[in-house]
Amino acid sequence: MSQKKANRRNALGRGLGALLTDDGGGENNVLAKKPLRERSASAGSIAEINLDQIEVNPFQPRTDFDQEALQELSESIKVQGIIQPITVRKLNNNSFQLISGERRFQASKLAGLEKVPAYVRTADDQQMLEMALIENIQRQDLNAMEVALSYQRLLSECDLKQEQLGDRVGKKRSTVNNYLRLLKLPPDVQAAVRDGKISMGHARALINVESTSLQLELLKKILNEDLSVRKVEALVKQASFPDEPQEAPEQKVESKEILSVQDKLSSHFGTKIKIASKDNNKGEIKIPFTSVAELNRLLEIIDA
């Protein structure tokens, strides 16, 4: 691997910080070793900044915050302070704009703080949007639709290709594509995914249904009957290929002749053999085994 590629991967591993245009604020930075009150709020520094000098991020993709969780964070900040500084960019001498740390910013206001520790970074509008979206995606409590919408915004508003997007968020292109396909589903199905009524697996199965009305019909069936993903996949396959012959159900063995053959085979192989007969005079012989050793024993008998 070339040094250039190695550096790129290391940058991705550092998360949002790798997207910023300066390297300040690290542990080895002289500014980082000074007390916060002694530092100037210049790019590449960590400083205490008045809350009323900080504007919220206009590119923040998530505007709905759990108020109870926010209050809990506020109480924690009152006791422990802010453990991880927020990140801002400097607009002018007296004005900053939030890049990441919206919850910490809002909770600090609730806690009655006047100042907060902040990394001061350099970033243009597109980088602001990209960082805000990626930070949003990295949250653990996002549902599949929120992830899909964030991916879509990164593609359209940040002019990224799927391969580049995969690099940014640390996902394979196929994974990114699976999320993006969810956006093709009807609004009712998307809402069901968003609200946790169905899983992403259910939704991915419904994507393969061409008819919107049938997708909604299957959604209703999933919700009413609590269907598994595998069952939905079977229903989708049946709906997509209605002319494909379905496997006939096994019939009860009633013929004395078949029972006699079944007993002889069971005795010969030393295990219970099952003959499954169908109504078209066809069927199959099932020879069960419970281990590789038993399978090898059966194969030796067949080869004898």
How would you describe this protein?
With 304 residues, the protein is of the alpha/beta class. Among the domains are: 101 residues, Conserved hypothetical protein from pyrococcus furiosus pfu- 392566-001, ParB domain (Alpha-Beta Complex), CATH 3.90.1530; 48 residues, no CATH class. Helices cover 48% and strands 12% of the residues. It has 13 helices and 7 strands. The strands form 2 sheets. Strands 1-5-3-4-2 form a 5-stranded mixed β-sheet. A two-stranded antiparallel sheet has the order 6-7. The chain starts with a helix and ends with a helix.
Under the CATH scheme, which class of the domain at 22-122? Alpha Beta
Q: For the CA atoms, what is the radius of gyration?
A: 30 Å
Which secondary-structure class do the elements indicate? Answer: alpha/beta
Number of helices: 13
Q: What helical percentage do the residues reach?
A: 40-55%
Terminal Cα span = 55 Å
Task: Provide a compact summary of the structure.
By secondary structure, the protein is of the alpha/beta class. Helix content is 48%, strand content 12%. Among the domains are: 22-122, Conserved hypothetical protein from pyrococcus furiosus pfu- 392566-001, ParB domain, CATH 3.90.1530.10; 256-303, no CATH class.
